[in-house]
Design a protein that fits this description.
It is built from two helices and six strands, in the order E-H-E-E-E-E-E-H. The chain has about 100 residues and is of the alpha+beta class.
Length: about 100
């Protein structure tokens, strides 16, 4: 079974979102399915499986040219190590 979830529990307060997402992901991680979850919540990147099913992180990276954000859409191993919200807020003139 292939399970794809984009921004799990988006719109929920952050505390409840993390608790609910962790449990949902744990229940969907098993030997007979591939579960893909997109998230901006770094707390979800440290999950482990309750039944020793491998849990792997992957991410995309951004780069900047002439005050514009770009993505090469190459999937890389591991969790994301960068953030871009402050840069985007600065580009929008908010900060």
């Amino acid at each position: 079974m292939l399970i794809c979830i984009d921004e799990i529990f988006k719109g929920t307060n952050s505390t409840d979102r993390i608790v609910g997402a962790k449990e949902a992901i744990r229940r969907l991680t098993n030997d007979w399915s591939i579960t893909l979850v997109t998230t901006h919540d770094f707390e979800l990147c440290d999950l482990t499986s309750k039944n020793n099913t491998p849990v792997n992180n992957a991410h995309f990276e951004e780069y900047y040219i002439d005050d514009e954000i770009h993505f090469d859409f190459k999937m890389r191993e591991g969790r994301c190590k960068t953030t871009n919200a402050k840069y985007l807020l600065r580009m929008a003139g908010i900060i």
